[in-house]
Amino acid sequence: KVVCVTGASGYIASWLVKLLLQRGYRVKATVRDPSDPNKTEHLLALDGAKERLHLFKADLLEEGSFDSVVDGCEGVFHTASPFYHIVTDPQAELIDPALKGTLNVLRSCAKVPSIKRVVITSSMVAVAYSGKPLAPDVIIDETWFSDAAGCEKSKLWYMLSKTLAEEAAWKFAKENAIDMVAINPGLVIGPLLQPTLNTSVESVLKLVNGSERFPNVTYRLVDVRDVAGAHILAIENPSASGRYCLVGRVIHCSEVIKVLHQLFPHLNLPEKCADDKPFVPIYQVSKERAKSLGLNFTPLEVSLKDTIESLKEKNFLG
Ligand code: NDP
Q1: In angstroms, what CA-CA distances link 23 with 48, 194, 230, 276?
Q2: What is the ipTM of this complex?
Q3: How many whole angstroms separate alpha carbon 194 and alpha carbon 36?
Q4: What is the pLDDT of residues 157-192, one digit of tens each?
Q5: How many CB atoms sit inside 10 A of residue 85's CB?
Q6: DSSP secondary structure letter of residue 126
Q7: pTM for this structure?
Q8: Which of 80, 106, 244, 310 could form a disulfide with 6 if both were Cys (CB 3.0 to 4.6 A apart)?
Q9: 173-192: string of b/e by CB count within 10 Å (b at 16+)?
Q10: Nearest-angstrom CA–CA distance, 164 and 172
Q11: With 70 as the cut, is the pLDDT of residue 276 above it?
Q12: Atom of ligand 1 nearest to the CA of 9
């Protein structure tokens, strides 16, 4: 079976490519710069890559860039999208590649009758910013959709980019009879395959190396291997449909510190998180749909342990 993965060099996508090769798929993988070894070497070294991994150059903002890649595929995983919180031009750096890029990929898919399903990597940030208040008895589920106008007003640019992209994707898929599934992960942690840092793992590094204070926030965490696995379940399970929230654990920052203390007593961590704001409420995220896909979540302790060990192994952390 032939599938396409867009943005294959990324953190989540690299795990997806690894698992797809393990499962015997032929993978057509897009990268922006195939000549950059930081983006390709770890992919080319994967088991099965020699025989079944094919790299293509493609850019989200180039019209028709994905036409020849998706041609002949049975499934397409659209993961490519910029993930940064600090930007100078949100429209050019985040919104255009997320929104126009998603439509660009879907337009290519609409031309190919062999494609049975498209799985897009959306995010919990396209779910949770609905404006509804959060409290311990509130359960966020797939019926929630973030409010784009609210994100824009609060200058939550990354959240806005993912919300607009998913909204537009559903509209396009419906109008063009594309069988589409959206995967909506929380903050993704777990080991890195690539030699560079992505935004979510970098945020863990900044906390444990002391360059940033632990903030007074509640995290929605999920393991990268679970996220990659869910993408494959979403394409292999014929009855998969709609959106899938993926959050293994909702946890306040102070609890993350406790877990890290237990796992790594020698790390020089603070005793508690910043308490300059009122306590941020904990809430719940439904696991029902994710479980119905057949997904079992990795325990948070394992994900955090493997993240820190990976950061050490790759010399990001002493
Ligand atoms: P990475 O930063 O590791 O990967 C992002 C990928 O997008 C890279 O491969 C990058 O390509 C590609 N990309 C960005 N802009 C363009 C462009 N203009 N044209 C082509 N490709 C482009 O991020 P993650 O693996 O963390 O994220 C992957 C996906 O998962 C994104 O859609 C993100 O929004 C989503 N997500 C991530 C979460 C997380 O916590 N990590 C949580 C929820 C969702 P290049 O390598 O060339 O820069």
Answers
A1: 10, 20, 14, 48
A2: 0.98
A3: 12
A4: 999 999 999 999 999 999 999 999 999 999 999 999
A5: 11
A6: G
A7: 0.98
A8: 80
A9: beeeebbbbbbbbbbbbbbb
A10: 12
A11: no
A12: 9
